[in-house]
Amino acid sequence: MTMQELLAPGRFVDSDAPSIEALAHRVTAGLRDEIERIVRLYRAVRDTIVYDPYVDFFDQRNYRASSVLAAGRGFCIGKSAVLAATARAIGVPARVGYADVRNHTTSRRLRERSISTSTADGSRRPRYSIRRFVNGLD
């Protein structure tokens, strides 16, 4: 990604949304050190947006930074979009990274709600990839 892309608003990292800009500027007001500003943004996202693994994974609002901020809750991908968007809003280049998690610890309730399909050997695997969904490929 180019520096311009790391600073530009995106479909899910909508750093130009008024609520994102307001949060970013409020949390970092008066701070000059870039690392201190990012740490403040990280703590604000971590501490003010409730982690909720039970969101509807098919609802794209749960991936868009401004929607997650408005809801006050989200799961890891939505919260990371908020952090990246607030960083971009104050001029700090940012992007999110995704990985396929293979041994994620989960509760029985979440496992029962997971979207999965049986494989030929009888094991279960995700029916879709979050990465592919967010990129509009699924």
Task: Give a structural overview.
By secondary structure, the protein is mainly alpha-helical. It has two domains: 3-96, C8orf32 fold (Roll); 106-138, no CATH class. 46% of the residues lie in helices and 7% in strands. The protein contains seven helices and four strands. The chain has helices at 3-7, 18-28, 34-48, 65-71, 76-89, 108-113, 130-134, and strands at 50-51, 73-74, 116-118, 124-126. A two-stranded parallel ribbon has the order 1-2. Strands 3-4 form a two-stranded antiparallel sheet. The longest helix is centred in the first third of the chain and has 15 residues, at 34-48. The model is unreliable at 126-138 (pLDDT under 50).
How is this fold's topology laid out?
Elements: H1 3-7, H2 18-28, H3 34-48, E1 50-51, H4 65-71, E2 73-74, H5 76-89, H6 108-113, E3 116-118, E4 124-126, H7 130-134
Parallel strand pairs: 1-2
Antiparallel strand pairs: 3-4
Helix pairs in contact: 2-5, 3-5, 4-5
